[in-house]
Write a structure and sequence with these properties.
This is Insulinase family protein. InterPro entries: Metalloenz_LuxS/M16, MPP/UQCRC_Complex, Peptidase_M16_C. GO terms for molecular function: metal ion binding. The protein is of the alpha+beta class. It folds into 2 domains: 219 residues, Metalloenzyme, LuxS/M16 peptidase-like (Cytochrome Bc1 Complex, Chain A, domain 1, 2-Layer Sandwich), CATH 3.30.830.10; 181 residues, Cytochrome Bc1 Complex, Chain A, domain 1. Helix content is 44%, strand content 22%. The chain contains 15 helices and 11 strands. The strands form 2 sheets. It has a 6-stranded mixed beta sheet, with helices on both faces. The protein has a 5-stranded mixed beta sheet with strand order 7-11-8-10-9, sandwiched between helices. Helix 3 packs parallel to helix 7. The C terminus is likely disordered.
């Protein structure tokens, strides 16, 4: 599997010509640096853009266009990778040969996507429609409030916020509730135009087509434009302080949330990234991992215990749910697992199971057009062209000593504990 590359103005093109799928998978990525002054407006923008275009300004008419394309699927995500805020639009449309369509459905899909991003519904003043902005501000506010209500997600975000409090990564990709009130149709449209002029754009198409065909269709849908495609900046891999920061927060919660933030000093583009994948997998990535077995199963101290790696930021985070009074013991056992990794206490079974899980997931991801696209986008973000097949081979070649070497670079930066406010007031279970 090989993506063919090209450009149309400021848009990078990535096309995988294949007859493997009966549909065309289309993804448009638009990324800008995470910034407190723009993060909320950027997050709100795709919510408004999805409501309608200048050609079909009413949402019902917009959805009818998708129905006319034989039920094409349309959606979007807003997330962060490294220190970038990414808006991703997705379209999934059936190939013409499987329906009785006289027109090219890929052409129709790209035309619609071009309208969504460059020619949205506007009022007589040339701004976004007030009714869409007001409705989607409410939608976004509810999504941000849902994070607070989901204490597992809240604790994970607060740990990162404290760990990266002087870095752009502290910002949530959906923005900040406090900034929503100030946004109206005029200010949001101005922010959208600035975003449109500054974002890095990458258009992916997977299906029975060619790079030349996509170039022609994209030029028609988005305009040839001027300028060169933007480049993502690689975030600096920060170091932890001399001693881990300890943050205790009190809320009305029924279960304690103990999270830890680690600095890995390893980026996706680094040669030892496969070893860091193995490190995270053995530490807390799977049901056979050290955290799951030692904290949850053997000591019965946690309802859940896992770790997660962000290779584009060089961070690994640990999440666990515990009883309030078990803080000291759970914290100690978690840190014992970190030390065990540094000391090379790795069994052959742990290594073999983790390799099998990682490589199995990578192979399985190649059965999905959109997951294949998401994997290849790592190349754009990191500057390192790594195929799934190459990463599988690199993982297979990782030795226990490579994992220990990766572990030696990991620093514990932040310990975050969310505990019950009432119990704290009663003087119990001090953290």
């Amino acid at each position: 599997m090989t993506f063919e590359r090209g450009e149309v103005g400021r848009i990078r093109l990535h096309v995988w010509p294949t007859k493997r799928f009966k549909t065309f998978a289309v993804s448009l990525y638009a990324g800008i640096p995470l910034d407190e002054n723009t993060v909320t407006a950027t997050a709100l923008t795709p919510f408004v853009l999805r409501r309608g275009t200048a050609r079909t300004p009413e949402t019902i008419a917009f959805r009818e266009r998708l129905d006319e394309m034989y039920g094409a699927g349309f959606g979007f995500d807003v997330y962060k990778r490294g220190d970038a805020q990414i808006v991703q639009f997705r379209l999934d449309v059936i190939h013409d040969q499987f329906v009785s369509s006289q027109a090219s459905l890929l052409s129709a899909a790209l035309e619609l996507l071009g309208e969504v991003t460059t020619d949205p519904a506007r009022d007589k003043r040339g701004y976004f429609l007030d009714k869409y902005v007001d409705a989607e501000k409410n939608t976004l506010q509810k999504k941000l409030e849902a994070i607070i209500n989901d204490k597992m997600r809240y604790a994970a975000e607060r740990c990162l916020e404290e760990m990266c409090k002087d870095e752009p990564y502290r910002l949530h990709p959906l923005g900040q509730r406090k900034d929503l009130d100030a946004l109206d149709s005029a200010s949001l449209y101005a922010a959208y135009r600035k975003w449109l002029g500054e974002a890095c754009f990458d258009l992916y198409v997977v299906g029975d087509t060619t790079l030349e065909q996509v170039q022609a269709l994209a030029a028609k849908a988005f305009g040839a434009g001027e300028g060169q495609p933007g480049r993502y900046a690689f975030p600096q891999l920060e170091s932890a302080g001399k001693a881990p920061k300890s943050i205790v927060e009190e809320m009305d919660v029924a279960q304690g949330k103990l999270n830890m933030g680690l600095r890995t000093h390893t980026h996706y583009a680094d040669d030892d990234y496969p070893a860091m994948l193995m490190y995270n997998g053995i530490l807390g990535g799977y049901a056979h991992s050290k955290l799951f077995l030692n904290v949850r199963e053997k000591a019965s101290l946690a309802y859940y215990a896992a770790s997660r790696l962000d290779g584009h930021k060089g961070l690994c985070t640990i999440q666990s749910g515990i009883e309030f009074q078990n803080y000291d013991q759970a914290s100690a056992i978690i840190q014992q697992q970190l030390e065990a990794m540094r000391q090379g206490n790795l069994s052959e079974l742990e290594v073999a199971q983790t390799k099998a899980m990682l490589t199995g997931q990578l192979r399985e991801s190649q059965d999905s057009a959109f997951e294949t696209i998401a994997f290849d986008f790592n190349t754009v973000l990191s500057g390192r062209n790594r195929t799934a097949e190459a990463l599988i081979a690199e993982i297979e070649a990782v030795s226990p000593s490579d994992i220990v070497q990766a572990a030696s670079k990991v620093e514990l930066d932040t310990i975050y504990f969310l505990r019950n406010r009432k119990e704290a007031q009663g003087g119990h279970a001090k953290a």
